[in-house]
């Protein structure tokens, strides 16, 4: 079913995307500002994934880099649409649809800005169902969709198009360019047909973001528990609640990396480890959940999502976990986004604490 994104949708969509972004994806406030600016020229039609024509040319549009940098290095609309224009010229055919690479903070609203500025429809879908830190970490990679040619641009007017051997090489080369260009750039790539999009994307992502954002706002208005509302909507569980007592965070090689510690009642402590997004949650040495399932930090009272760059000493927070798209738990996907890829000698633990079957079968450390 087709519908339209208007400025009235932006706050709820950005809030819901920041929840699904698992701490990453960039500052939702910045993305919301860009989207509103672009929507001033007209609303954006949204097309359901199953309604995208077979011969469509669908492109991802996203910010690549460290979310911490984007707070000070604000993108412009010109910077957002330049990679799409460059890629259309490179491919020699018109772009027909814009899609989100991930639902996470700014990367769910930047595609709205691009679609509005270019007069193109947006697909109600994304490439992950959450956010991940590296470019190749999208479901289309598992289906043979190539990231390149990948176009990128910065605020200085630099634009380039990469053609690489595979999606991991696209990430490696583009990351170096990203660091040289100030640790954040706008990108467009993963050109795919409507047929490939329907096969590989996560359907209904934008609608889900709006639903999550609406559930938080409604719970607050009705003076019920907004965190519980999100847990119920996502089919997840609450892992921990307490006060942030330590955040160790640094921007290195184009990522925001670090850990956060949260003191709970009765002397328990939760440690969160992140690389843009939360990857591991463990309490007193016991692993509660890991990537690829979703680990999210919400304000303890308001239910407002808190990004990894927004974590601060003294915040009262609640940490929740929810299931990822089931395709992320295949052996091939876990090799790309499981704890082992990020250097943790751990099996992938699902949101409910059980070990992912694919990791259990390979004998990964629990």
Provide the structure class: alpha+beta
Series of secondary-structure elements, N-terminal to C-terminal: EHHEEHHEHEHEEHEHEHHEEEEEEEHH
Catalogue the unreliable spans: none
Helix content: 25-40%
Number of strands: 16
Instruction: Tell me the strand percentage band.
Output: 25-35%
Using only C-alpha atoms, the radius of gyration works out to 19 Å
The overall pLDDT, averaged over residues, is: 92
Q: Which assembly state applies to the chains in this document?
A: single chain
Helix tally equals 12
Distance between the termini: 43 Å
Q: Please state the overall shape, judged from the principal axes of the Cα atoms.
A: globular
Q: What kind of sheet is the major sheet?
A: 9 strands, mixed
